[in-house]
Each structure stands twice: as C-alpha cells, then as structure tokens.
Amino acid sequence: MIQCKLINNAAYRLEERERLALSVDADGAAPHVLLKTCNRTELYWGEGTVPDDTVRHVFRVAAGLESALVGERAIQGQMKQAYSEALAKYKLSPTLNRMFQSAMYTGKRVRTETRIAEGAVSHSQVTVEILKQRNINPKDKIIGIIGVNKLIEDTLKYLVSRGAVNIFLSNRNVEKAQALALKYNGTAMGLDRKAAIIGMSDVLICATSAPHTIVHAEDLSQKAEDILIFDLAFPRDVDPAVGELNHVTLLNLEDIEFFAQKNISLRKEEIAHAEAIIEEEIFRFFRWLRIGKVSG
Predict the structure, then answer these.
(1) Which domains does the chain have, with CATH numbers?
(2) In this predicted model, what pLDDT tens digit does every residue of 27-56 receive, in sequence order?
(3) Given CB 3.0 to 4.6 Å as the disulfide criterion, which of 3, 62, 128, 292 pairs with 158?
(4) 204: enclosing H helix or E strand
C-alpha cells in the first residue's frame, strides 16, 4: 500500500515549521517521493493500493488548493522537481509513479480550465506589493539580494518592471550571482561581501537554501540607516533578533502570507470548479488502478 507522512505547515508558526521539517526522515534505501516546501513536508512511499484520501490530498496540493496562497503556481514546479529527483534515484512503484503523474496533470487542468490562478499572488509578487503599499519606490532605493534561485529571479523581474536599477546580488556561488546580475543589470558580489551589501542596502531580500541563519544582529551593528528586510527563505535566513533592532523592519514568510490573504477572494470563488476537476481525475486514477494496470 502507498503510505505517506504529512506535515501541514499551515497549522504551525514559522519556527515550528522549521523544527517539524527536520522530523521527516526519508529512508534513503526505499523508493520514495519527498516534497518539501515552506508550507509542507510530505513523504510518499510503497506500492499497490492507495487510500482515497491520500490521492485526493496529492491532487489538491498539485492544484494549489492546499497552498497558503491559494492557486499559486510554484507548487507545480516544486512537485515536478520532487518527482523528478525521485525518478533519478529510484524505480518508483507503478502506483506511486502514476499518482504523481496524474496529480501534476490535474494541477495543469485546474489552472487551465478555471480562474483560480487569475491574479495569483506569489511570494515574489507580494514582496513587491508590500513595497508599493509602504510607498517605497524601487527606482529610488538600493536593493540587496542574498541568494540565487527561481524565487529571487521572479522577484527581480517584478522589481525591474517597477524601475529598480540599483541592485546588488550575492551568493555563495559567485558565478550564479554574476549570471543573474548580467540578465537584470545588477552587480554581483561574493557572499564574503555580505556586510558591504547590508551596509549599502535600503531593502534587503534573502532567499537562500542554507540550513541555518546567515544574517545576524551583529551584521547590522554598524548600520545606522533604516532598512526593510524580506526573509523569503525556509528555513529562515535572518535571525529573528534582527527584527528587534530599532532601524530594522523584518518581514518573514508568515508576514508575507498574512498580507496575501487579502487578495485571494477571486480564487476562492473558483475552488468549487477546481474541486470538480479533481474528482474527475481521481475517478480516472482509480479506474486505472481497478483494471489491473498495477502489479504488486
């Protein structure tokens, strides 16, 4: 039987999410799919039959119905990556393989046939929207960025579209920072120049894959000017103590998601349509299961 271990991070505060994410230990010898995002940690393994509620959950996740930002698109790419990494390491059972293929197809159908992703907010979009709400014009500010990944690039796209020109990127892999800086007319610096980036920045955006915090209160001890910091990483890049400094405003994923809840009324109206599509695809999946396509 297909089994799963799920941690729904929406039920926990950010610090609890970080702790719980470490509690899911995948057996490296057993074929499995491990999906880890800022909002969930999910482990799937086994073969043969699969409970209805497990299939329904995976399909809803792929469709964005279980996301903190309902209808967001990032989960599709995250699920595809988790599935692809599993395929590269293991020979997944037919049921597990088919379940994830069907889930990703379902997610694509939901976003194509409903308006659930219309005006969809992402963490990158919300970051830029918060700047707008605070009357911060990216064109007039020095923006420091630590980390290079899709979230950072998406954020850069929005910032540049709003006129940002003074952008400094830092990453442990300097070549990646240079490639992204070239694409968006920014300036690349090594992570060893972290203090310099923080010192010059009016706005700092962090989103690395580091397993520990990389920005601490002492990194801002010499900075007198006000700074707005977005910590988009999971686990967090910025020590919470940084937010206690008088000249620092620190916003983390929990703050971003709270802000975004105000903008999801349209997508909520499309949930019933999305759920109908999910039920259709669940029926198809179990029909495939019943007619003997699965061995074991």
Answers:
(1) 3-118+266-290 (3.30.460.30), 123-260 (3.40.50.720)
(2) 666 899 999 887 778 899 999 899 999 999
(3) 128
(4) strand 203-206
